[in-house]
Amino acid sequence: MTKVSNARILVIDDNPAVLDLVATGLHKEGYGVLAALTGDDGLKDFILARPDLVLLDIALPGGLDGIELLKRMRSINPTSRVVMITGNTDPTLARLALELGALAYIDKPFDFAYLNRVVVMALQS
User: What's the CA gap between 42 and 2, in Å, rounded?
Assistant: First the structure.
């Protein structure tokens, strides 16, 4: 599995520790990384930066949760690549996210090596 070079990844998670861990790890892998703590900020970054991949938490504070944000991103760009990352273990939410076009659904806590493999596969899809 070969890493997609120069890919830009937007990470949206309301937990600063998770956001920092994922962003730092992806940066070390050579990716360009944008990070947002809220759905509103994530949507702005998505529109302005046009990332190659979005890693999106489901439980976000404020007006836009991850499912609503996924819907909006897919309406803006139907081919956008989105991977859900969440601590929510509700299989109904996982199924809904996949039906709405998410490429994968990763449960927290996760192993970074596994996350990195999913990122590589998502970027190659």
Answer: 27
Q: 77, 74, 73: which is closest to 36 by C-alpha?
A: 73
Domain residue spans of the chain: 8-124
pTM: 0.93
Summarize pLDDT for 21-34 with one digit per residue, the tens.
Answer: 999 999 999 999 99
12, 57 in Cβ contact below 8 A?
A: yes
Instruction: Give the architecture-level CATH label for domain 8-124.
Output: 3-Layer(aba) Sandwich (3.40)
Q: How far apart are CA 45 and CA 76, in angstroms?
A: 13
Token digits of residue 58: 């489901």
Give strand pairing partners of 84.
56, 105
Q: Which residues pair with 105 in a beta bridge?
A: 84
